Amino acid sequence: MTTRHKYAKQLFTQKPGGELPSIVVAQTENLQSRFVIQKILDLREQGIALNDIAILFRSSFLSFDLEIELNKADIPFVKFGGFKFIETAHIKDLVAYLRVIENPRDAVAWNRILLLVDGVGPRTAEKVIDDIVARRASAEQDATGTTLPAFWSQFKSYPDKIRSLFATLRDIAPQHLAPADKIQQLLPYYEPIFAKRYDDWNKRKKDLEMFGQIAERYRALGPFLSDLTLEPANESVTDIAPTDADEEKLILSTIHSAKGLEWNSVFVIYALDGRFPSTRAALSEESMEEERRLMYVACTRAKEHLFITYPINIYDRDSGLVLSKPSRFIAGLPDNLLDTWVIDEE
Amino acid sequence: MKTYLLRKNPTDVAPPSTDRKFLIDYKKELNPAQYAAATSVNGPHLIVAGAGTGKTRTITFRVAYLVELGVKPESILLLTFTRRAAQEMLRRATMLLDARCERVAGGTFHSFANMVLRQYAPLLGFQSSFSILDQSDAEDVVNLLRTRLKLDTRERRFPRKQTLFDIFSRVVNTGVPLRDVLTEDYPHFTELLPEIEALMKAYTAYKAGHDLMDYDDLLVHLRTLLRDHERVRDALAERYKYVMVDEYQDTNRVQAEIVWLLGHKYGNVMVVGDDAQAIYAFRGATVQNILEFPEQYPGSTIIKLEENYRSTQPILDLTNEILRRARE
User: Fold this and answer.
1) Is some CB atom of chain A closer than 8 A to the CB atom of B149?
2) Which CATH superfamily is domain B26-118+217-324 in?
3) What is the pTM of this model?
């Protein structure tokens, strides 16, 4: 096998000019945050929009202090990452109802919606699921392979509450009902459960609406469900702060989420050896090279201004060390590549 | 009498005619390296595209070029990291050339696998209406089975459902045996090998019994389908004569095998990526795919895109140096 470790390359531009990137040392984490904020305001003065400025970091928790300071300074920002729409519990509930219609052997989805029924615990759920799967094996299907409504009507011996679930499923199962219609018919059954289960249901209610809207683009259930699981595109309404469409916001992002993007100005914060690379990455050569590539990805996001910052005197609980050195990927670089700044307070 | 079948020469598929008039002036629109990449047609190609070097633009023009040459748009398969990326490239190609580019098959590995498996799942013992489990669903199943197998006793520490799922995923995506994954990443659980192995088997059986596939399964089942069913492999090779893969540095072993199997007949595989931007090892990706491409596809052409359209030279000087100091 090959022992190639990289394809050597030398990127160049025909664009003239440009200032040197800087490496900025901060005595404390908080000074780092305050430096970043003041610099952002400077850049803003120069006419660079907030959404053309990004703060990048190795791990999500490294921006917490900065987030607090940004809030204090009233600088609006969005942070990339967090929960996706489809991963929210109430949307997963709705998806589960639809999934059992499409695949009546889907025990995972059955389990979810059975447990939503009042008085049903894991044991009952398991019994019911076994029963369903057994009956499913002999169920009659129509030409397209969809289980006939009669299938859903045969669970007469169950308690009322479970029967009412099956009655709902029977009503929304027919193939001629488009996904959006199925959802609309499902909601009267689900909403009381929803309101009981989630304390903040009023905030989540918009999501149910949005789910119906997304469904309207589909004529068949199968593709709708596949797309939902494979391409969870939208973020939940509850996860996004109320926004003006054109309000500009500063970007905070992990480097992984910044892949493929670019901004006029980029800050790489916490370029501190022990945080980036993390102390754990010191374990193998492979993961160390991966960390280096992360630094490379972070720095290549910048078009004009690049600031690499690191705080010193950071205590690392895992190793018991005090971290004070710049990331090894940028340490010891000659002055003609990187300006070194120190921060002084007025 | 024996028949000896001559394989089709790759160049028979779409002979590029030199005197043909193109609607797009590729030479004018692209820099020399981009031009070389966009106008390569047959055989395996590796495009090493540095950050900000117009990778999307190059792929877009290559799609348009193939279509202009007379390649059927439906027979071009473009696999990308996100569906949005594929849509964006095909949208741009459509604007560049015409609506024929909309008919190019584009999507993520997972959406492609889903589409193929909906058609062929019965060959693998699944119903075509199988459900897809997202990560938290999959973890719930693992949890359920852990309880069922009575592995959740309090006397000793047993890995959490997230950890278990992560371990299974690692085994599946990297092809590294369970024993070695435990030794390398979770040495404190190595004594639980028999139990974890039993649980992994139970998880696989449960999914098969209920027509369920998790994200990893989509890829693994597609690979199995292509590897073990020659008829399907040939049918797909006929359907997709030109395979293009974006972000190849972030593919895992299973994905690389899928690409290889799809390209087995015509060998028209173009992968695009930047080894310097491989950052998904924690999800099972391996930079080896892009590094070993020339060995895996003998006779392949390597084209490097190095002219950057994003950053100033001082920024590039710094990033070049960061890279130069990487392991040789």
Assistant:
1) no
2) P-loop containing nucleotide triphosphate hydrolases (3.40.50.300)
3) 0.83
